[in-house]
Amino acid sequence: MPGCTIKTAPRFTLNLSLTNPTFRLPDLYSTAKLFGFGLKIFHPWNNHEVDKEEDDEVSERETWEFVHSGRSAFVIIGFTDEDGREVRDLERCLRYCRQLGERCIMIKSIHQLFHHAPTLPKLHEHLEQTKRNDVHLWKPDNEEKGSFAFDVQRIGKRRSQSATRTIVESFAYMAMTTPIRMKDPEVLYTYFEEYEDAQAQERAQLLSGQLEQTRLDIPFASEKDKKVVQIDYEEGKFVGGGNLGFLRQIYFGRLVCEGSARLLIKKFEVKERAFYGNTSMESEMSLLMAGQTLSSAGKSVYDPFAGTGSLLYTCAHWGSMVIGSDIDGRQMRGKDASGPGVFRAATKYGLRNRILDCLTFDVTRNGWRRGGLFDAIITDPPYGVRAGAKRLGRNEKNGRMQKDEPVLMPDGTYSHLQPGYIPVSRPYEMTDLVYDLVLFGRWMLVPGGRLVFFLPTVTEDWDDLDVPVVQGMKEIKFCSGSSQDFGRWSRRLITMEKTDSETYPRPDFLPVEMEKVPGHHNFPQRFMEGFDPRPRPGQANESA
Amino acid sequence: MVRLITHNMLTCHVKNCTKDNFPLVFENVELEVRPAEANLDFIKRFIPKLEWDALVQTARSIGEDSLPEQMPEDKATLESEEFLQKLHHVLMEIHVEEGQMKCRGCGHIYPISTGIPNMLLAEHEVGR
C-alpha cells in the first residue's frame, strides 16, 4: 500500500460468539488449515507490545486456555506462512481475514487492530504517538479513501448516547480529512469497550478449579445495577454499580469484515427445513462439525448414520460431494409421498446435486467395495433412548438364536423376499460403535482425511482415554476438547485425522473389550436411568 | 438416484459371498438423466478409485456406451476436459430411480425405490 509504513506484522481483533466457546479454536484452526495459512493467537488483555515477537509456546498454550474458557468475546490474531514466519503483507492478511470470516461460524466480525489498552487515556497516548511518528495506521485511509464512520460498542454494558459522543469526540486528533458518512462508509472505525462482570469471572475460576464455591445464586443484575453509570477511565472502573463489571479492555481499529458464516445458522435452521426429524441436529452444531471436515469443492464426505441428513447439507454447502447411509431408510425418506425427504430438503437448499446418494444399510454390514474412498467421515451416532443405534442381527440375549437358513413360508416363498420385510436388528452398544467408527475411518479415509463425530458421554465418567487410540488415527484436540454440556451428560465433538498413508484392513465390527469402561458405555440406558454414578471399584454392589 | 459412481463403490456383502460379488447387475431399471454442474476436479480425483471394467460394463448394460473399453493410458487424454466431461455425464448425471441390483454370485437382490437402494441383509445373510 503506497504511503504506508507498517514495520510490524498486522494484528487483527476477532469478535467471537460467546456461546459454545470450546468450539472456537477448532473452528479457527481448521479454517486456517483449509486455506493453508497459520494462526498466531494473542491474549486480548495482556499488554504485549504489538511489535514484540512472541513465539513462546507456553504463552500460546495459556492463551488457548483463555480463548477456550469463553471469558472474553475477543482474541487478537496474526498470520504465519508455511515456514511459520509472520505475514507482514497487509493485503495478504486481509485476504486471510476474509477467508476466516466466510468460513468460521464463531466469528461475528474481524477488525484490523490499531491498538488495545485497558483505559482510554492509554489508548490515546499510544495512537497519538504513532501519529507524531507518522506511522499511524489510519494514514492510508485519509489519503486513499472517500469516507469514514465510527462505531462504538460496549460489550457487557448498556449503550449510552452521551458516552458514545464523548468517546468519538476524543478521537479528534486523528484529523480525518475525508467526510463522515454514516451509511456505507468506505472505512468503519470500530471501538469496543469490553466489560467483565464479577460473576463471569467467578464462573471461570470455578471451571478452572481456582474456586470451590460460588455465589452464582446472586441475581445477575438488579434493575438498580442496570442503570447507566459513569466510567472513570483513569481507574478503568465503573463508579458505582454493585455487581456490575469493570472495564477490561478497549480495542480500536477498523472493520475488515463481518462474519458472514454466522448467517448460515439461520439458513440451515432445522425448523425452516423442508424435512427434518425430532432428533435432527441444530444448525450451529451441524455447521461447526462440517467445518471440522475441511469440506471444500472436489472432496467426498460420508455420514454412516445420516438420519434426516443434517450433516450432509452443511458439508455440501462448502462444496463437498456427500453420501449418507442409515440402517433405517424411513429416517432419510420421511413420510411425504412427494419423494425422499433428504432429497427434498437438499433441493430446497440448491444442494441436490452434491448429494451423491443415500443408501439404506447397516454400516457394520456395509457394501463398500474398498477403503480410502472418502476425504471425511462425519456423523452424529444415534444415542437417544428411543432412537438408539441399531445393527443387523438377532439379539440372542433374548433367548432366540439367529437363524442361519432362510425361512420358507407355507406358500413356498421365502419370508425375507416378502414385500415390506424388515430384517431383525439388535442394539449397537456405544462402546463398540465408537471403536468401530475409528477403525472404519482408518480404513475408509484418504491420508490426512478426517473423522468428525459427536460422542455422548456421562459427564462424571468422562475420561480422555474414552476416545479409542489406534495406530494411524490421531485426535485433534484443543485444551480439554469441545463439548456441549447438559448437566449430567454432555456431547463431545471429536475430530480425528488419518495420520499415515498405510492401507488398513476392513474392520470386523466384533464387540471389543475395553480396559476402562468409557463414559459413553451403555449410554441410552443410563440416559433413561438419570445417570446414576457407576459403582466404583471397591464399593461395588455391597448392598446387592 | 443411484448414480453409477455410487454403484461402482458397492459390492454384495452377504455372508460368505466372495465370488462374482462385483459389480452388481442392474435389472428392470427406470432411468433419469439430470444435467448436473460439473466438478471436474472431483472427477479427476476419483478416477484412481474407479473399477473401469465394471463401470463400462454397467454403463453399457443400461444403454450408455460413450466410454471406451479401456481406460485411456496417457495422462493427457485421461485428464483432458473432453474426457472428464464424458466421465462426469456417466458417473453423475445418470440416475437409477427404480429397479434392482442383483449379485451374480449369490443372487441376492438389492431393490431400488425412489432412488434409494435397500442394502439391508436378512437374518441368515449376516454373521454374528
Automatic annotation (TrEMBL), chain A:
Primary localization class, coarse: cytoplasm
Species of provenance: Filobasidium floriforme
Keyword annotations from UniProtKB, A to Z: Cytoplasm, Methyltransferase, RNA-binding, S-adenosyl-L-methionine, Transferase, tRNA processing, tRNA-binding
One Pfam family in the UniProt entry: UPF0020
Example of a GO biological process term: tRNA processing
Domain tRNA (guanine(10)-N(2))-methyltransferase TRMT11 N-terminal: 98-202
Protein name per UniProt: tRNA (guanine(10)-N(2))-methyltransferase
Family under the similarity heading: Belongs to the class I-like SAM-binding methyltransferase superfamily. TRM11 methyltransferase family.
Molecular-function annotations in GO: tRNA (guanine(10)-N2)-methyltransferase activity; tRNA binding
Region (Disordered): 525-544
Stretches assigned to the Ribosomal RNA large subunit methyltransferase K/L-like methyltransferase domain: 273-391
Enzyme class of the recorded protein, top EC level: transferase
InterPro entries assigned to the protein according to its UniProt record, in alphabetical order: DNA_methylase_N6_adenine_CS (IPR002052), RlmKL-like_Mtase (IPR000241), SAM-dependent_MTases_sf (IPR029063), TRMT11 (IPR016691), TRMT11_N (IPR059073)
Superkingdom as given in the UniProt entry: Eukaryota
Subcellular localization, as worded in the UniProt entry: Cytoplasm
The enzyme's E.C. designation: 2.1.1.214
GO cellular component terms attached to this protein's record: cytoplasm; tRNA methyltransferase complex
Automatic annotation (TrEMBL), chain B:
UniProt record, GO biological process: rRNA (guanine-N7)-methylation; tRNA methylation
InterPro entries membership: Trm112, Trm112-like
Molecular function as annotated in GO: protein heterodimerization activity
Superkingdom field: Eukaryota
Segment forming the signal sequence: none
Any Pfam family matching the protein: Trm112p
CDD domains per UniProt: Trm112-like
Gene3D superfamilies linked: 2.20.25.10
Subunit field text: Interacts with TRM9.
Similarity comment: family membership: Belongs to the TRM112 family.
Protein name: Multifunctional methyltransferase subunit TRM112
Organism: Filobasidium floriforme
Lineage: Eukaryota, Fungi, Dikarya, Basidiomycota, Agaricomycotina
